[in-house]
Amino acid sequence: MNYYPIYLNLMDKRAVVIGGGKVAERKIQGLMEARALITVVSPELTEKLHQYYKAGNITWKKKTFSAEDIKDAFLIIAAANDPEVSFAVKKAAAPNQLLNLADNPEESNFILPSVYKQGKLSMTVSTSGASPTLAKKIKQNLASQYGPEYRDYVDFLYDCRKWILQEITDSKLKKYLLSAITEREFVTSTNRQKDFKDLLDKWNQS
Prior knowledge:
The structure is a single chain. This protein is an alpha/beta fold. It folds into 2 domains: 14-112, NAD(P)-binding Rossmann-like Domain (Rossmann fold); 149-205. Helix content is 45%, strand content 15%. It has 8 helices and 7 strands; from the N terminus they run βαβαββαβββααααα. It has helices at residues 22-33, 47-54, 83-92, 132-145, 149-167, 171-180, 184-188, 192-205, and strands at residues 14-18, 37-41, 59-61, 75-78, 98-101, 114-118, 121-125. The strands form 2 sheets. A 5-stranded parallel β-sheet has the order 3-2-1-4-5, sandwiched between helices. Strands 6-7 form a two-stranded antiparallel ribbon. Strand 4, helix 3 and strand 5 (98-101) form a beta-alpha-beta unit. 20% of the residues are buried.
């Protein structure tokens, strides 16, 4: 199957997760980071999910799945590890709802890639369901190449790019700066602001 890669803004969107085990827990952590409005439908919860519930991070329907649970959902994840439950969720979901069946990706209309994040830097790996194990190994390789230093570096790029676009009118200088700040020396720099000022000074003196 050919998938269309996309990043979704789930802030304040209703996401329903069916299941309260470890698989559901992993899915819910990602939804929490995206600031979705999360409802969990399950007779039981893991200890961590129970903590999320007590903290008000999720809504818990302590019950087995029924069709009305997903009536107003924007995104649905069936993670109960039960083929019968997955089938019921699939049958109840509307064509316009985003649906992921954790135990049956072929019957889903979206899948969740393996994700590696360092702050604003986010990289996803997918084998379109062919081998989640390979996707995990590639993610581990990315982690070894793009370490914690990229968290601050990408924050710097964000602020710096915004300043360049607002303050620099010379198109050649703008292009030069936007390219220069992506060079390796800025990744490893201990004073990126000074290095950026030096770039400006160098341009103005040329």
